Amino acid sequence: MPDARPRGLAANAAGGLNDACFELRSVGYCVLCERLVEREADGRCLAGHPPEAIHGRMILSADEPVPVLPRFNLAAFLLPLLWGPAHGQWVGALFLPIWLFADSAIVSAAQRGGLMWIAAVVVASGTVAFQYFFARHANGAAFRRVIGRVSVGEYLRRERLWAIVAVPAAFLLLGWAVYFDLVLRPALKS
User: Fold this and answer.
1) What is the pTM of this model?
2) For residue 144, with 0-12 CB atoms within 10 Å meaning exposed, 13-18 middle and 19 or more buried, which class applies?
C-alpha cells in the first residue's frame, strides 16, 4: 500500500527526521510595555496585557532571544520634521511651526530683553521636551508599521544610517537658522 503522506513527509520519516521538533515562539510589539514581547498562547504579553495591545507578529525559535529596540531615536530627536513623515509619523510635521515659534520667541527675547528671556527659555525648553518625547516613542511607533516586512536587524541598520545623516543635517539646519537671524533678517528689515 503506497504512503498517503506528501512526499517530503514520507522521505523525512524514512530518513529518521520525524522525531525532530521545532518549538517556535510568537513575538509582537506591546504598546503598553513599549517593547517587543513574547506572546502567551492566548495572545497576551507576559505582563498580562490584552492581545489588542500587541501589534505585529514575528516568529522566533526556542533559543533565539527576543530582540530589543533602542529606547531613544537620535534621528527622530534631531530631525523630527523629516524622520517623522518618512516613517509614517505625521506628527513630526508639527515641528516646523513649533521650531518657527521657538525661533521667533528667541529673536524677540534678544531684541527686547527682560522678561522675554523667560518666555524664550520656556518655549525652547518645551520644544526640546516635545522632541525628546517624540524620539522616546519613535522606534516603537515606526517599527510597528514594518514588523511583518522588516527584521529588527534591518530596521536598526536603517536607523543607524538615519542617525549618521541626522547629526550633520541638524548642525546645518541650526547654522542656517543662526545665519538667517543674524545676517539675513536684519538685512530684510532695512
Assistant:
1) 0.78
2) middle
